[in-house]
Design a protein that fits this description.
This is Glycoside hydrolase family 31 N-terminal domain-containing protein. Residues 1-44, 156-216 are annotated as: Disordered. One of its GO terms (molecular function) is hydrolase activity, hydrolyzing O-glycosyl compounds. The structure is a single chain. By secondary structure, the chain is an alpha+beta fold. The strands form nine sheets. Strands 8-9-10-11-19-16-15-13 form an eight-stranded antiparallel sheet. It has an eight-stranded parallel sheet with strand order 31-30-29-27-22-21-20-32. Helix 10 links the parallel strand 20 and strand 21 (583-586). Helix 17 packs parallel to helix 18. The protein is globular and about 160 Å long.
Length: 964
Amino acid sequence: MHKGATTDRPRGTARRQGHGHTSTRPGVPIEKENIPFVDSDHDDQWVGDGHLTAAISSRSTVDQDDDTMTESQENLARAYATRHVGPSLAERRMQEKLTVSIEFNSADGDLIEEAKDRATELKVIDERARGLRRNSISLPSLNVNELEALRLEQERQEGSGILETDSGSDSSSEGSTEGTPETPTTPAKLKPMLHFNDDSSSDEENKPRGKNLFRTKRRSSIAPLPALRLNDKEMMSNDFDTHSVLSNQASITSVNSLASLLKEKMQNVPAIIRKKKRETKDYKLRVFVGMLFLIIVFLVGYAYVMYNQKLLAKSYFETIKFHKKTRNFRLLDGKGGEMLTGMLGTTLNIEQPYNCLPKDLKDDGSVCYEWNSKARLYMNLAKSPAPDIKCYSFQWESLLADLYPTDCFDASEDRGFWYGGGLTNGIEYILGRTVIPEGPFVTGDINMHQWGNALKRYFLNSRGVAIQVDETSPLYVSVNTGPGKRLCLQGRNDKFAFVNRQTPFPELKYTVCSGPDMKTLHNGLMQKSLWDGLTERDNDVIKSLLREPVWQIPASKQEDLTETAIYNYTESIIALGYLRLGHVLVNEFWQRTIGDFRLDPERFPTLDETVNILHRRGFRVSFMIQPFISTESSNFREAVAKKLLIYERESERSIPALTRYKSTTSAGVLDVTNNASIPWLAEQLKKISETVEIDSYFVDFGTAFNIPRYYQCAQTLVNPDEYKNYFMERFEGTLSIFGVSSAITVPRPPAFLSLPPVNSSWSGLQSIIPTMLSYGIIGFPFLMPGPVGGDFVLPTQQLKKMYSYYSFELPPLPDKELYIRWLQLATFLPVLRFTHLPSEYRDDTVTAIAKELTEIRQRVLVLLERFSSIAMDEGLPIIRPLWMLDSTDVNCFSINDEFSIGDGMIVAPVLEKGETVREVYLPQGVWKDGIDESLRKGSRWIHNYHVPQNKVAYFIKMPDNTRF
């Protein structure tokens, strides 16, 4: 109880409680008496006559009529006893929630009593004392008369009638102990007032004891309290009294305590339910968070889709600047710098375009503009080959037959250097330095046409921009023909190259890609693995072409090529002694007429025996074939009868279309798009193999201009160059092809692309490196140069006009210096090819130089084989321009008289007559001089580098950690 607690009720005052029970004054026998306890909203008080009002709760009589206080009631009494001053409003609210009601049921004798602020009289209880709970306030087992006697005795001893309590004790602490009441002297018949625990600590025994006879020593564990709410947070009894259950279980001292414990457990049921409710709330929170997460994922996905739809417009605003009215075009890099500039639709008038009608829009989300029923332009994002490369597609659709969509881009060198396309008429490695009139982009003879024997619709700029034109577009290309230096692309149908219209009106479709630098962009756009379908035998052919020379039998005329000439030529090769035996190439004169596909029996009576001898000596024999059939051939009539030839347009395949090929003035062309022609040609070649064991074939396609002008095939060709693709696709699994004369796509390995025939002159020698570099850039990694010394002598004084069908005679023995410099260059190229042997000069100097170059060739082979494997994997060329070593070095952009073998060696041959010094540039790194083996630092020019006639300048790349 609270120290000095008093009550304002008169001593002995009783009130009616329960169902039909009455209370009487003290001393009067009654059936039952109430022991009052005090509500936390009022103070305990003593009345004037010394009667004690104590906060004691009555318990239900389960089996006996003895009264004990429950633990919840005791806790409320303790809370009240600790008050020294009047309670605050928050405390009063708290105490209202802590008020414990005692229910009395008339059926089972339970007493329903709520805590009040006034005392009630004790009811009659059994004289037997019952065991008390250890952590509860036990009531003395006294009757009313005994209690009255104790009261009177207490008044006599104390006088004041007030029990003193220890004001310094803190009843709120679990470990504190209340004052121990002193037991007064009473008659022997009286029972002990209180039961104490025997295991009290010594500290508790040493504390001052109070005189309250109705208080017992407090235990450290208390009964679980009902659920409390503190600071708007609901707390369970188990949250702040974790030991109460164990303590209660350990403190059972009587049978009645079991009922008390059961009631306490029942009191905890609401708390458990509320706790489960709280857990339920947590579960709902988790469900809410999960649903919110799903909503966020949906919104992010939706935003991503919308972002992709809007990405094109964003890209055009941030990367591409296009003025719709003037059609000025600018491609910007990440820093806002101009990478590509030009003008689109140069053939249109300056006028404002309109957005395309819904029926004209594409399903891919392209941006579309239309110029007043003249043309439409579609712009869109294109698939990028690598994350750091961005590509944009452009497509013009002309709405008029005579309107040719044309886009032009700045080709001046201050806007970067342009490469690609193919070999130009001027043998220029950089496109901006030549003039190419507007013409069809098809293969031709560089002596009279604008482009060479190999083309790709691929143009590369040194600022890291590339243009790829679609194969189906009727492409015309011009360079530097209009105002200013410009590279122009035009979609245009004509009566020969693009006579087969793919669309009703001309179209131009291309893709512009940009990358961080030219090297990264180029590597990403090149064709990848070439290993698909490659057999082990094909791989052996590639290695043999790298290691062994190609010996082309010299024969300018049909009568020059005989069985004896082949035998004698191979004997001379063996007599050299320092060059490997390799491939013997026999040109088309092995037939009597082109298209016979049979050996001439007069010139080759026992060629099968000769070929067997060559095989035993270690040679490989290759024949040159072509899809042309001379009108003088016996096969021509059969081919016409079986409709195996390309026929005249609109002739219903009844009239074969004729053309000229080399020395043949009239010839038909085998239609390889006709399914019947493939087995026919295969059967003809099989007959040759039955007579002579042929190892491989070299296919001479000629050029696009060797196709009949008014051609028509069984299947429509986009352009004449597509014929080559059909042939390779149909025969690559039937024939072993080791070389082709022309191509617009990379031939299937082991086929090497042959460089076009060159004149036996210093200008012819100077054209080899630009041709190798140009073809390597557009995607042809395996290249076969012409023979050392040149292919022919150009009779410029005899002819007023060049014609591609002319067959020129082989050159006589070239000048010795030219031959030596040519041989020095050829030593570092993938294939070493001969017509004239070094022994023909009968000069010890030439022989000594040739032997030294043979030793160098053995060292070069290591690099050639290494980078040929890389070419198979990545499509990169073996012979590379210097900017592929360092695309940030502007000095490397325009060098066309040096090249590198992969990134392991740089070669700088002498290409001028009578020169023994030259300028050499080395990219970044450390390089070892091949002549004197000194180390040289890169990123600089070597001026007046001395190269004697018997030496060639080459530099080997050293490891990056090399130091001087």
